[in-house]
Amino acid sequence: MDEPTSFAQSFFNIALRSPTNLIAQSDTPETAGLFDIILSGGIIGLMILLVLFALSIAAAYLVFDQTMTLRKTEILPDGVSDTVRQALLNARPAEADTACRREPSVLSVVLLSGLSELEFGWHEVEKSVEDSLAEQSARLMRRIEYLSVIGNIAPMVGLLGTVTGMIFAFQQVATTRGAAGAGDLAEGIYQALVTTVGGLVVAIPSLAAYAICRNRVDSLIAQVAYQAQHALTPIKRRPTARTRPANPNPAASPAPRPQGGNPPMPPKT
Fold first, then answer.
1. Radius of gyration of the chain (CA)
2. pLDDT at 37 > cutoff 60
3. Cα–Cα distance between 116 and 129 in angstroms, integer?
4. Range 111-116, long-range pairs (CB < 8 A, 24+ positions)
5. Which H or E element spans position 266?
């Protein structure tokens, strides 16, 4: 066989095989991209994913806010505790008050609360510090609680998308009176599970960030309590200048009874 004939035969064989290859390529399912997966749930699925996206943005903002707020320099400034202690040892409470106001922080608020009860003795100072610590701890935890709320809501929103998607899938089976095959059911459930994945993607990091921030707040508040007690300890050694009145309305108190014997009788008329 000469060379032109061989070339023609090879071209003919390639031409016969080409349609088969094209048909095989057309039968191969295309891989769905991220955008196709997002839109696979329809209008309701898209709305649920938008809600999950908004929750993720809120969780990211809260994590950034707590990262900036729960810094040790913001809660426990260096030198405030030692300055207040030294001022109280030298009997200069005004200097201690000025040092606290110069460095606004959680520790400064707690120390100012204790210094405000200085004239009533250590017992009142200690009680005021405990109340202030509880208030500051609740204030720091208030914003962290939103991370827990997001972590609990996000899976429920995703489950809502799953349930609605399965309802639509089985509605198609009921509409076609069982003519819909397993492929139609699988496609509907696949579309519904996309929202569940989205809910878990939002919930897991939110709950992890909540646990980390909560432990951070507990640790910082414990350090504030220790430094506040260390700074205000010199008040224990000072005598109490005055005591808080037990009855705020002295006019309503009964007249003192004379000492010894019976009370004088009214004169006879």
1. 38
2. no
3. 10
4. 111/80, 111/81, 111/84, 111/228, 111/231, 111/232, 114/228, 114/232, 114/235, 115/84, 115/232
5. none
